[in-house]
Each structure stands twice: as structure tokens, then as C-alpha cells.
Amino acid sequence: MTDLQKRTLLKVAALTAVASAALVGCGKKEEPAPAPAAAPEPAASAPAPAKPEPLKIGFAYVGPVGDGGWSFAHDNGRKALEAAMGDKIVTTFVENVPESADAERVIRDMAGQGNKLIFGTTFGYMEPMVKIAADIKDVKFEHATGYKQGENLRTYDSRTYEGAYMAGVIAGKMTKSNTLGVVASVPIPEVIRNINSFTLGAQSSNPKIKTKVVWVNTWFDPPKETEAATSLINGGADVLFQNTDSAAVLKTAEAKGKRAFGWDSDMTAYGPKAHLASSVINWGPYYIKATQEVLDGTWKGGGHSWWGVKEGAIDIVSIAEDVPAETKTKVEEVKKGLADGSFVIWKGPLKDSAGKEVLAKDAVADDKFLSGINFYVKGVEGKVPGAK
């Protein structure tokens, strides 16, 4: 091979190597795999809405919760309210609050402790509650048995006279002496109306009856109530009724072998042999309604509610076994009539104890008439204290 041929081969080899290197240099580079995307940050969770504070509700009672009658019935209503509302509310009560200047102190203190709904449960709290409601506008006040209202004060009551009438139906049948006795508390229309309704009920069963009344001028005083009941029995009464708050009247009847009724709550246990029946009040439905209105923001002041058999607020319970079947049937008919409006207790012709006509024939007493009664009906002995 000549030198020229060798040089040619070497040049070709060199050019081939350069070309190969260039091809490698122009090739596509391998890109690194992309890093996995980072997980998104979790969104901050919105804070749970704060649970509303429970509505604080206060109750003022004129007597002890263990009186077995009026205050006991109100406290049963408070317990029913708690059971219905659960943790939406917190209730407290003060018992033995007198109908005096002390009532204003107690109720103002309730407002100061954060109670936004306050129930005053006796007639004598009316003037203090009117005054307090005018001063403390952010609290809602409910007054039992009163008649004065305000922007943040309303009143409520139960038609206790319906229970009194049904008790009278039984009393008229069960008396042997035809003399009934009533231990009365304070001479206001509410109590006078109950005495009269009891008498009217008794006359529907026995036109011969007469009713004697002894006033004790207090709602709760067992010794005075016992003394009054004893006086009535000594005066010939063999069936006793009461508009006082303790079980003393029934206990006295039991001790002396007479008959009597429970009032405001079922008092059977206080005198099982004497007990004829109990006229009871169920405050629970009203307390639940009023509280729900506050919670809903629909509560309005200035009104009055007066509930009876129709609304489930009044009943006659635990009628004694020896009460005749036909009398029990009559009581049930009256109850049904009061519930559906087909029976009216206060309907003319009706005369007072002096013989003056107070309701003309077929006239039906309206609530205004009933709220202002200050006379005894025919058949009740004596005069209403303070009446002209």
C-alpha cells in the first residue's frame, strides 16, 4: 500500500469519528422525571358555631314548694318545663316570698342574676312586678292571676272555678247534712268566684245545700286553716272545700270523720278516707308555651291568658270510690262540655245571696263579669268581706 493510500484511509477514519461524535452531541438529552406534585394544604375548618347560652328563668313562689297545693303545683309546672326544654333553659325558684315589699327585692334580684324570663305566681306580686317591669326593659315578666300588663309584662291565670264547680257536683251528692263549708283565703274576685262556682255545682246535684265560709286572710297558714275547718265542722258542715294552699283542711276532715277535697294538686295521700276528689291545676302547658315564645323571639307583652279544662290546665282527679256512678258520669259530662264549649257554668237566671238578679235568663257571663265578682250567689251564707 502506498503512502498516499495510508494517508487517505487515516483521513476517512478521522472524519468518521468526528461525525459520530457530532451525532452523539446533537442527540436529545434525557429529562429528569418531574417531581410528584405536593399534596394541597388542607383548608382550615370553619369554627363550629357557638352554642347559645341557655335561657335563664326565675320563679317566685308565695309558699313553700312542699305545701301540697298552689306553690307545689307551680313547681310541678316548672319541672315539666325543664323536662320539655332540656338544656335550652336553666330554671331557679325562690319560695316563701311574701306579698309585700320583700317581693320587689326578690324579683329585682332574680333579674340581676341574669334571668330573662320571670314568673311571679301570686296575686299580691302585681304592683311590685308592674314597677320592676317598667325599670328593667330587657327582662320579660309573667304575673299569675293579676290584671295589670305592660310592654314587657303580661298576665296569666287558670280557670280554677271550673274545678270548683266539678267538686261542687260531687259535694252536693255526698253531703248528709246539706251544709258545705269553705275555708277561704283572701277576698278577691278569684276566690269569691270559686266559692260561688262550688256552690252552683253543688246546687246542680242537691238544691237543698247551703254553704258556709270562714276567711283566714292568708294563702298559706296551716294552723289557721285547721282552726277554720274545725269551726265549719262544728257549725254542721260535713263536706269541706278550700281556696287555701296547704293540706290542713283535708287533714282536719280526716281527723274528724268528715269529707273534703284536695285543691290545686292531688292531695289524696293527706287524707285518704276523707278525700272525695282533687281539683288540680296543670301549669306546665302554659310555662312551655311562654318559654318557647321567648326562645323563638315571638313573645309579646301586654296580653292575658286564662286557661281551663279546654287547654288542659284544669281537671278533677282521684274521685273517691264511694261517689255514685251517676255522679261521676255527670262530672265527666261537665268536663266534656267545658272542653268543647257546650256547657257554661255562669249562665242566667242567677241571683246573689240578697236575691238581686245578677245574670238575666239565658245570659252568659263574659270574662269581664267573672273577673269582677264581689258577691255571693244565693245559697252562700253571710256577706263578702268589704262588700257594700
Query: Which class do the helix and strand fractions yield?
Result: alpha/beta
Portion of residues in helices?
25-40%
CATH class of the largest domain: Alpha Beta
Strand content: 15-25%
The H-level CATH homologous superfamily of the largest domain, spelled out, is Response regulator
Which term fits the overall shape?
globular
- Total strand segments: 14
Number of domains: 2
* Rounded Rg: 40 Å
What is the CA-CA span between the terminal residues?
164 Å
Alpha plus pi helix count: 11
What is the third-level CATH name, the topology of the largest domain? Answer: Rossmann fold
Strand order of the largest sheet: 2-1-3-4-5-11
Order of helices and strands: HEHEHEHEEHEHEHEHEEHEEHEEH
What is the CATH architecture term of the largest domain?
3-Layer(aba) Sandwich
Mean pLDDT: 91
Uncertain runs? 1-33
Q: How would a textbook summarize the main sheet?
A: 6 strands, parallel
Structural summary, described in words:
A 6-stranded parallel β-sheet has the order 2-1-3-4-5-11, sandwiched between helices. It has a 6-stranded mixed β-sheet with strand order 7-6-8-9-10-12, sandwiched between helices. A two-stranded antiparallel sheet has the order 13-14. Helix 5 (160-174) packs parallel to helix 6 (189-205). It is globular, with a radius of gyration of 40 Å. The longest helix is centred in the first third of the chain and has 24 residues, at 3-26. A hairpin with a 5-residue loop joins strand 13 (350-351) and strand 14 (357-359). It contains 11 helices and 14 strands. Residues 1-33 have low confidence and may be disordered. The chain folds into 2 domains: 55-158 and 284-307, Response regulator (Rossmann fold, 3-Layer(aba) Sandwich); 160-273 and 311-371, Response regulator (Rossmann fold, 3-Layer(aba) Sandwich), CATH 3.40.50. It has helices at 3-26, 70-85, 101-112, 126-135, 160-174, 189-205, 222-234, 248-256, 284-296, 325-340, 367-371; strands at 55-60, 89-94, 117-120, 140-144, 153-158, 179-184, 210-215, 239-242, 259-264, 275-281, 304-307, 314-317, 350-351, 357-359. The chain has 388 residues and is α/β, with parallel strands linked by helices.
